[in-house]
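Could someone model nicotinamide-adenine-dinucleotide with this protein?
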Amino acid sequence: MTTVTLEGKQAPDKEKPKLQQLTRTPLASSPREIVRHNFELAAHVLGLTQEQKSLLQTPFREVRVEIPVRMDDGSLKVFTGYRIQHNGARGPGKGGIRFSPAVDEDEMRSLAEAMTWKTALANVPFGGAKGGINCDPLQMSQGELERMTRKHVSRIHRLLGPYRDVPAPDVNTNPQVMAWILDEYSSRNGYSPACVTGKPVELGGSLGRQQATGRGVTYVLAEYMKDWDHSLRGLRVVVQGFGNVGSNVATLLEAEGCEVFAVSDIFGGIIRTDGNALNIRDLAEHVKKTGSVINFPGTDAIENEDLLLLDCHVLIPAAMECVLHDGNAGKVRAKVIAEAANLPTTPEADEILHDRGITVLPDILTNAGGVVVSFFEWTQNLQQAHWDEEKVNRELYRYLR
Ligand code: NAD
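Reply:
Sure, complex below.
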């Protein structure tokens, strides 16, 4: 395989920030430590006082609930759910609901804080929140997921609401889960479409919301490439994760002329070694039929860890946190990393990538398309308005630009 370069292009003439001179936290590998470290860097640049820092870092409200669910086999299982509202100074809490065995207080607290900075950066009138349930959704039936979701809402609905806290989809949740949340919330509080975003369009969801996070990633990447006097066309791209964000970003980049040649999901990765790109539409069909990207015809298998080290122009982590760390950052061969996932890069990896001249487009900007279109959905619901998709995408571009 030939080494990928940005042929004939000059690096943009930008002064590198002196990260080394700023306060550094020692070895970090948890979401909490990533958020804390990035906050300290920003606070240093802004010259925040200790009082301002402690105000901004302290979560407003943290709730943990036990969720008993009757499983299909008749047994009773008790799950643990969380909702963390980090900061509401700029508006109602906003942040996804995630179902995963990795969900715990630390993860939720970190992701909620990251949402505060993301909504502020994107300048949408929300604060930061996050929630989730510790469970293994891949092992649960639709009926079990529905009962668990509804019971969770019954436990936390007093904290939610259009002007309190507005959840959205995240890892392993989707428009169907948002529909259950809407129904359960509305049955207790009256019809309230603005209580949740990422709903099916038939129930008040916004056109373009499903693709919004992936679309935002392509907009941010395209704007960055302009610095290199380069379009997206011809870029060789690797994507980790093929869920909502990963599959949409792969589809949209393919449409812009990028060559997406390797992708992965939780079951493993696939790569085209013949120099050609994957056909993303066929791959999406394969995933719909089989539940995974693996064994897609015409590809070879690759481990998730090796996928991150492939020679490419753009690496897009679109799965989980902490996947780029001090153990692999020195071996990454991408020229640009577009953080579609939340918190995929540890501070040590950030530093190593920075020293190696690899640009990291940060999550709170790169994946902000989802929360921006969530804002459009919320505002349409409050006004009983319906935007066409062209307007949604145009406004999304304007916000991210
Ligand atoms: P999803 O559940 O739709 O997809 C997650 C994908 O990652 C799946 O393909 C899954 O198989 C894969 N995956 C999980 N663990 C993996 C692992 N260890 N190695 C490789 N692949 C793995 O979730 P999503 O909504 O696409 O979210 C992905 C990331 O994007 C998360 O970090 C999420 O917080 C972030 N994000 C999502 C949105 C949104 O609108 N959905 C918005 C902003 C940020």
